[in-house]
Amino acid sequence: MNSSSSSDHKPVHLAVYDTFADWETGHATAYLARAGHPVRTVGASTDPVSSIGGLSVRPDVALDDVRPEDASLLILPGADLWDTSDDLAPFARTARAFLDAGVPVAAICGATAGLAREGLLDDRDHTSAVSFYLAATGYAGGGRYVETDAVTDRGLVTAGPTEPVAFAREILRLLGVYEGEVLDAWYRLFHDSDPQAYAVLAKAGVA
Fold this sequence. Notes:
By secondary structure, the protein is an alpha/beta fold. It has eight helices and nine strands.
């Protein structure tokens, strides 16, 4: 486990926009924050947005003010808007800037389609809800689609909407929060409700 204080880490940027899926990033952000990674919400502006569940969130920072060099990760949750308009395309372009700068990006559910349209999945292994969902974007990366819970390839994490725990697992591994048997136990506890996993986490000071 990485037990450094929050001052040792650059912020993790969590994108928020109207209709963002509340449940998809909670495991990741909660355990990043517990491990000392500050989480900052990023919106198209700093005007409040509403999640699918009706939560109102006022973004900490506007997208135009976000720089890859000031962040450790960009997380893009799913949202109805990924499939109903081009409003979120600037977030996909920001993801390109992050990856080009060597800063990781994590996208789940509809955000994977946004990255597909941006061309970011054409040459990386990736996953999503189902392969034909991404195929409908017309992207060129169908041959790199992997039927699994979550995928990390060259700094990009992808997952489908039913895999928030696997999504978090990949993020926690990528940022070195947990590793080895501790990471495996964390996943087994939250994904499989494995009571034996709790003992491993308690011994490691995670539980």
